[in-house]
Amino acid sequence: MEECLWPAAQREGAERRMEECLWPAAQREGAERRMEECLWPAAQREGAERRMEECLWPAAQREGAERRMEECLWPAAQREGAERRMDECFWPAAQREGAERRTEECFWPAAQREGAERRTEECFWPAAQREGAERRTEECLWPAAQREGAERRTDECFWPAAQREGAERRMEECLWPAAQREGAERRMEECLWPAAQREGAERRMEECLWPAAQREGAERRMDECLWPAAQREGAERRMEECLWPAAQREGAERRMEECLWPAAQREGAERRMEECLWPAAQREGAERRMDECFWPAAQREGAERRTEECFWPAAQREGAERRTEECFWPAAQREGAERRTEECLWPAAQREGAERRTEECFWPAAQREGAERRMEECLWPAAQREGAERRMEECLWPAAQREGAERRMEEFLWPAAQREGAERRTEECFWPAAQREGAERRTEECLWPAAQREGAERRMEECLWPAAQREGAERRMEECLWPAAQREGAERRMEECLWPAAQREGAERRMEECLWPAAQREGAERRMEECL
């Protein structure tokens, strides 16, 4: 309704939520939708999930069919699918055709060729390949992944022109994920940037979202959420804030109100009296609980037991997770140890990990090591090797490749996609050092995905910079976003700036809202209020 984000990581992706929405299509498609907070990363292809109140369906492999009385989601990753719901419906026809229609909320990403989606209030259409036409009175989204697209909305608009052109305009909230090269995101208060290639972006004055187009996932929270499961796994579960982007194989998230199910590999079976989610990533799994249960036995074995809410995705072999109220442990590879008094989550994707938090903690050590600690809410997906993230209230760190260091007093997010990164912010900071180095600093909200090598971004309140290739320099007093897709770029704006230098250079300046996806080489755009 208010804030929507769409990162078409590869081709398609679709995400829509009444208040807070996040969609990181880690591989190809994904779809997520919930009345309040929903996240759907269809890590592989399809999935199927059903619930009386909250439903999510990522058909990890081929087809799936999901239907629910209130909230339904259906991403037909391969060919066709048909989903219809009385209130909220979602349909990303990843391959060819699809037809979805709803009275209030509708979503349709025609990943390949055609698609037609129309809704009275909220509509979404990412025409991944060629054409698409989406129009809505209040909130509209259109990512023309290939060539053309036209999207216009009075309040909130989204357009990711994956290939060449794109046009996005919005008075308050705008987002643009250039699935291929460029990307642009712009909003007076909330901004998000999904670097379709390498990076991700995180943005929030209130709500945060991170779609790591390639590696990472996304994380969602009642106020600020972001979860990019850079490599394999990721799973986060909390009584209020839940997010699950199973980027590669495993992932499972379940909550009393919000549930997400990405069946990454083949089968899954989930049963619960109210809300249950089960992504059996590989073959077998068995999970049962009276209230809330979730078990993604990613590989073979797993054992999870909890009195109220328990989650265990034994991605590879062993894992042991136990908690009094809410616990989550996806031991993706071998070992893991997670302990928390109230809510804990630990997916030790590869080997080791150590995560501890007093209230809510999450750590997916995708590769080797990671150390994350937060007083209230913490999230850390060390996608590759090391990472260190610390925040007093909310923290998130997906060290996609090697190292990363992120620290923030309230909300931090750092996906060090490749090697190093250093991000620091007093309230909200985000840094995905996709390739090597990056340095981002902001007083309140900062985001920097140094997709390739270096980047330097600084903003007083909200900043985002995905230096897709090498260098970039972006500075803005309030909200800035810069995805230097290829090499260099320089963008500066007093309030909100966005510049995706898809190829080499670009120069964009605007006093309030600016957006520039220099798909090829150079471009120069300047506008006093809104620029594209």
Beta-strand segment tally: 39
| Helical content band | under 10%
| Structural Rg | 20 Å
**Main beta-sheet strand count, sense and barrel state:** 14 strands, parallel
Cα-to-Cα separation, first versus last residue: 23 Å
Strand content: 15-25%
Strand order of the largest sheet: 14-15-16-17-19-21-23-25-27-29-31-33-35-37
Instruction: Write down the overall mean pLDDT.
Output: 28
Tally of individual helices = 0
Q: Helix- and strand-based class?
A: mainly beta
The low-confidence runs, each spanning 5 or more residues with pLDDT under 50, are: 1-532
Overall shape: it is globular
What does this structure look like?
With 532 residues, the protein is an all-beta fold. It has no helices and 39 strands. It has strands at 14-17, 20-22, 31-34, 37-39, 105-107, 117-118, 122-124, 134-135, 139-141, 151-152, 156-158, 173-176, 184-187, 275-277, 292-294, 309-311, 326-328, 337-340, 343-345, 354-357, 360-362, 371-374, 377-379, 388-391, 394-396, 405-408, 411-413, 422-425, 428-430, 439-442, 445-447, 456-459, 462-464, 473-476, 479-481, 490-493, 496-498, 507-510, 524-527. Strands 14-15-16-17-19-21-23-25-27-29-31-33-35-37 form a 14-stranded parallel β-sheet, with no helix packed on it. The protein has a 12-stranded parallel β-sheet with strand order 18-20-22-24-26-28-30-32-34-36-38-39, with no helix packed on it. A hairpin with a 7-residue loop joins strand 12 and strand 13. The two termini are 23 Å apart.
